[in-house]
Structures are given as C-alpha cells and as structure tokens.
Amino acid sequence: MPVATLTSKGQITLPKKIREQLKLQPGDRVEFLVGTDGRITVWPV
C-alpha cells in the first residue's frame, strides 16, 4: 500500500502509482470525501 508524508504546510504528494492509476496530471483537481470510519476517498474532478 503506497504511503504519503504530510509536510509542515499540510500538503501531501500522491504516490506515483496512485497518480498513474487515476490518470492525474499536474494541475488536475481532485475531490476528497472523509467517511465516518476515517477513510479518505479521492477522485478526479
């Protein structure tokens, strides 16, 4: 399972495998949904 580290500015870099799987390119936007169980779902907008 890919892992990302939170920076002091609250930013993360999505791991390359995830970016490739979602076909994300620089400048693309993503949306987040936090579930009641604490899981975060990310998808391209």
Instruction: Report the count of strand segments.
Output: 2
Beginning-to-end CA distance, first to last residue? 23 Å
How many domains comprise the coordinates? 1
CATH third-level topology: Pemi-like Protein 1, Chain: D
Percent of residues in beta strands? Answer: 15-25%
Structural class: alpha+beta
What is the class in the CATH system? Mainly Beta
Strand order of the largest sheet: 1-2
Radius of gyration: 11 Å
| Biggest beta-sheet profile | 2 strands, antiparallel
Helix content: 10-25%
- Write the element-wise H/E pattern from the N-terminal end onward: HEE
CATH architecture: Ribbon
Mean pLDDT: 96
Principal-axis shape: globular
Low-confidence spans: none
Summed up, the helix count is 1
Task: Characterize the structure shown.
With 45 residues, the protein is α+β, with helices and mostly antiparallel strands. The protein has one domain (1-45): Pemi-like Protein 1, Chain: D. Helices cover 13% and strands 22% of the residues. It contains 1 helix and 2 strands. It has one helix at residues 16-21, and strands at residues 30-34, 40-44. Strands 1-2 form a two-stranded antiparallel ribbon. β1 and β2 (40-44) form a beta hairpin. The radius of gyration is 11 Å and the shape is globular.
